[in-house]
Design a protein that fits this description.
five-stranded mixed beta sheet; 120 residues; alpha/beta; 4 helices
Length: 120
Amino acid sequence: MRYIQPLQPAQNVTQKSIKHTAHVHQSFQQVLEEQQSLKVSKHASQRLEQRHIQFDSIEWNKITSKVLEARQKGVNEPLVVTPKATMIVSAKNMTVITAMSRAEANEQLFTNIDGTIVLS
């Protein structure tokens, strides 16, 4: 039979202080808001700017709300159709991937989407 020695407390062990950055001190509410806010990729931002497409805060909040709803239902990449634009969004990352005007989208074929959000 083998004898196992009991654990002994370590001696001369010092605890190092941890430096916290501002990011670490974010409140839970701030982190939650970041995860629930819709971001625009660089590519999509350029497309929106080139096409002179802008959304006011009410429209943007409505789009964000519907993308969150779609994400909760298991949709990963919805096509979002608004009166001004058509966008492909990563609901998982809460990021607009690409965007085009409604006129441009009239005769387009959209692939790799798994849901559609139509807003009026």
